[in-house]
């Protein structure tokens, strides 16, 4: 995802979590947000390695053949 799509998705995710927390899973708004978030994830491909310990989640690494990160430009 590019930066702008990621920013929009973060805002939608907050609204989505609010709707789910308040029990509106089957509301039209929540269905719309699920569709938007799902569509934003279609081009996402890769692997994330996690460590879970005592209620904490740590990202150990991530890789994707479609990554926007380019080591040659750094």
From TrEMBL:
Keyword field: Amino-acid biosynthesis, Arginine biosynthesis, ATP-binding, Ligase, Nucleotide-binding
EC number assigned by the record: 6.3.4.5
Pathways involved: Amino-acid biosynthesis; L-arginine biosynthesis; L-arginine from L-ornithine and carbamoyl phosphate: step 2/3
Classification via InterPro entries: Arginosuc_syn_C, Arginosuc_synth, AS_cat/multimer_dom_body
Top-level enzyme category: ligase
GO (cellular component) term, any one: cytoplasm
Domain Arginosuccinate synthase C-terminal: start-end pairs: 1-74
Superkingdom of origin: Eukaryota
Molecular function GO terms recorded: argininosuccinate synthase activity; ATP binding
Claim: Chloroplast is one of the keywords in the record: no
One GO BP annotation of this record: argininosuccinate metabolic process
PANTHER family referenced in this protein's UniProt entry, alphabetically: ARGININOSUCCINATE SYNTHASE (PTHR11587:SF2)
Protein name, entry field: argininosuccinate synthase
Organism: Horornis vulcanius
């Amino acid at each position: 995802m590019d930066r702008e799509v990621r920013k929009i998705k973060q805002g939608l995710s907050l609204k989505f979590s609010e709707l789910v927390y308040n029990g509106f899973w089957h509301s039209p708004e929540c269905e719309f947000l699920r569709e938007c978030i799902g569509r934003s994830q279609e081009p996402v491909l890769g692997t994330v390695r996690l460590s879970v310990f005592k209620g904490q989640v740590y990202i150990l690494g991530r890789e994707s053949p479609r990554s926007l990160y380019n080591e040659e430009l750094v």
